[in-house]
């Protein structure tokens, strides 16, 4: 089980407080380029975005970068799986109908591996289908229906990371 | 002489082939060059659009974007179509401003384009950015290919204001060759908000086929307030209209309709009888059981079938009646139908 805790951005009053978002932005981070090349710097939350639609990829990554996230992009399921194993993102956003290994298969593969089983996942899909939504939630992933509001998506991502941060802090060994 | 003709023919064919080859090659080069330029413009435009979407004053940024790129309508249209399909809610507002200030007039013109792909691209933009007064241009495309029709339906449903509905109904009433399938799709997607327009149209002297569709829609959308307008078609000379009226009454389930349906159960046309009996089955009015029993002895199979299942819908009382008929020997066809209905009730558990 992965216990690495993403540092979330904290506000001025709560620097260093558990679950405070602006501490993520200010904390030491490691930046990852889209090519997968690593540069050890300061640690900001990293989001792996797997979607074959370039418009969705560009839109989400632009909004996330504006919020100081590092975005790793992949256009296929197999590529996404490799990136998730190697780059250790803090959150995975995956399109349900991505070519190759689809979003649900990717989710189940990641949940099976101890290294990635704790990775929070957000499934994007144009299917407003009850079955698919229930399947995602059962597998521990959140679900966002396309088309979407990027501001709401970013807020949701921040909340997921904050929850992960809270959870990690609450379960830290004394 | 012959070799010279052959030689000239050969040279002519050679030149012709060379010219064709040159033409195809040059055309391909020009298209590829244009695509490369377009892609570069698209990428630059996309970056600027993303800045617009995240800008604090997105309205002002959108206007600046529109001024900058209004001379590149083809690429701009591609970009707006892609982002319109990805975004929802307030994020579409900057796109609307850009659309209004750049390519609206061009898109309206191109709705008449002979190319399907261009018509479809333009209709897709109108799905989110159409104004009510533009409904008239969109309604004309209800005769188009199915994929365009579907996009038009989406666009019209999105701008379903009073003005739009009025335009749609005007168009329907005056359409010399209406596409009933498309109109039924659009009325279905608009839902119960069409009630006042439907009422007004039902009171007009329209052709029977158009009235039949309107009556059908009133039944499907469960517009019970239109019951009085529908019931008068029960005596219409057109058979199809009487069938639709009977069907609509079977859906609206207004208790008062049982008398009209009983009258329709004795209609000279078996199709009307069958529909009226089926609607009576839906209505489940105890007073109509004798009518259903009589219908079980009809010479027409459909009437007997609907009467059998209509009786079964009454539960135990209906089942007892069916058992009695299945045992009688006077009418073998009625007995067979009753047996068939009872068998199917046993097999399906009455479902």
Structure commentary:
- The complex is a heterodimer of chains A (174) and B (351).
- With 174 residues, chain A is an alpha/beta fold.
- Chain A has a domain at 44-161: Rossmann fold, CATH 3.40.50.
- In chain A, 40% of the residues lie in helices and 17% in strands.
- Chain A has helices at 21-26, 54-66, 77-87, 103-112, 130-138, 150-170; strands at 31-32, 38-39, 46-50, 70-74, 91-95, 121-125, 141-145.
- In chain A, helix 2 (54-66) packs across helix 6.
- The two termini of chain A are 18 Å apart.
- Mean pLDDT of chain A is 77; it is low at 1-5 and 9-42.
- With 351 residues, chain B is an all-alpha fold.
- Chain B is built from 20 helices and no strands.
- Chain B starts with a helix and ends with a helix.
- The mean pLDDT of chain B is 89.
- The interface between A and B is medium-sized, with 15 and 13 residues.
Key traits:
heterodimer, A: 174 residues, alpha/beta, Rossmann fold, 5-stranded parallel beta sheet, two-stranded antiparallel sheet, 6 helices, 7 strands, 17% strand, B: 351 residues, mainly alpha, 20 helices, 74% helix
What is the topology?
The complex is a heterodimer of chains A (174) and B (351).
Chain A: H1 21-26, E1 31-32, E2 38-39, E3 46-50, H2 54-66, E4 70-74, H3 77-87, E5 91-95, H4 103-112, E6 121-125, H5 130-138, E7 141-145, H6 150-170
Parallel strand pairs in A: 3-4, 3-5, 5-6, 6-7
Antiparallel strand pairs in A: 1-2
Chain B: H1 2-54, H2 58-69, H3 73-84, H4 92-102, H5 104-110, H6 116-129, H7 135-139, H8 146-158, H9 162-174, H10 180-190, H11 195-202, H12 208-220, H13 227-231, H14 239-252, H15 257-264, H16 270-283, H17 289-295, H18 301-312, H19 316-327, H20 332-348
Helix pairs in contact in B: 1-2, 1-3, 2-4, 3-4, 3-6, 6-8, 8-10, 10-12, 11-12, 12-14, 14-15, 14-16, 15-16, 16-18, 17-18, 18-19, 18-20, 19-20
């Amino acid at each position: 089980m992965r216990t690495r805790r993403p540092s979330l951005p904290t506000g001025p009053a709560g620097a260093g407080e558990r679950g405070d978002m602006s501490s993520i932005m200010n904390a030491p981070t490691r930046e990852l380029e889209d090519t997968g090349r690593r540069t050890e710097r300061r640690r900001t939350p990293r989001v792996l975005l797997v979607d074959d639609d370039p418009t969705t990829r560009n839109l989400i990554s632009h909004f996330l970068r504006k919020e100081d996230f590092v975005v790793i992009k992949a256009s296929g399921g197999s590529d996404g799986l490799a990136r998730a194993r190697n780059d250790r993102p803090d959150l995975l956003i995956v399109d349900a109908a991505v070519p190759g290994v689809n979003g649900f298969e990717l989710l189940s593969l990641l949940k099976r591996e101890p290294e990635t089983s704790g990775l929070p996942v957000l499934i994007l899909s144009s299917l407003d289908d009850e079955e698919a939504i229930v399947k995602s939630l059962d597998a521990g992933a959140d679900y966002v229906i396309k088309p979407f509001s990027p501001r709401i998506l970013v807020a949701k991502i921040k909340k997921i990371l904050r929850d992960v941060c809270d959870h990690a802090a609450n379960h830290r060994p004394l | 002489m012959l070799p010279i003709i052959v030689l000239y023919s050969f040279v002519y064919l050679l030149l012709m082939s060379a010219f064709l080859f040159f033409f195809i090659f040059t055309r391909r080069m020009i298209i590829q060059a244009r695509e490369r330029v377009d892609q570069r413009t698209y990428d630059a435009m996309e970056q600027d659009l993303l800045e617009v979407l995240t800008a604090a004053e997105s309205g002002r940024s959108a206007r600046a974007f529109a001024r900058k790129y209004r001379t590149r309508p083809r690429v701009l249209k591609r970009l707006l179509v892609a982002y319109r399909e990805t975004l929802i809610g307030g994020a579409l507002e900057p796109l609307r401003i850009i659309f209004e200030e750049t390519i609206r007039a061009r898109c309206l013109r191109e709705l008449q384009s002979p190319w399907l792909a261009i018509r479809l691209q333009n209709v897709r933009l109108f799905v989110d950015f159409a104004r009510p007064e533009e409904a008239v241009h969109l309604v004309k495309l209800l005769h188009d290919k199915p994929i365009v029709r579907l996009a038009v339906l989406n666009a019209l449903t999105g701008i379903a204001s009073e003005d739009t509905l009025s335009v749609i109904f005007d168009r329907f009433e005056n359409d010399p060759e209406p596409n009933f399938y498309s109109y039924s799709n659009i009325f279905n997607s608009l839902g119960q908000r069409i009630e006042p327009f439907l009422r007004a149209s039902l009171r007009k002297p329209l052709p029977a086929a158009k009235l039949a569709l309107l009556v059908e829609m009133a039944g499907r959308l469960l517009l019970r307030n239109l019951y009085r307008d529908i019931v008068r078609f029960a005596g219409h000379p057109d058979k199809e209209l009487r069938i639709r009226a009977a069907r609509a009454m079977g859906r609206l389930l207004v208790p008062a309709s049982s008398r009209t349906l009983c009258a329709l159960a004795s209609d000279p046309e078996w199709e009307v009888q069958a529909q009226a009996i089926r609607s009576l089955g839906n209505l489940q009015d105890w007073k109509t059981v004798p009518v259903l029993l009589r219908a079980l002895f009809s010479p027409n199979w459909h009437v007997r079938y609907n009467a059998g299942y209509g009786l079964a819908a009454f539960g135990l009382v209906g089942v007892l009646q069916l058992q009695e008929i299945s045992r009688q020997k006077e009418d073998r066809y009625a007995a067979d139908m009753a047996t068939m209905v009872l068998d199917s009730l046993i097999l399906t558990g009455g479902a």
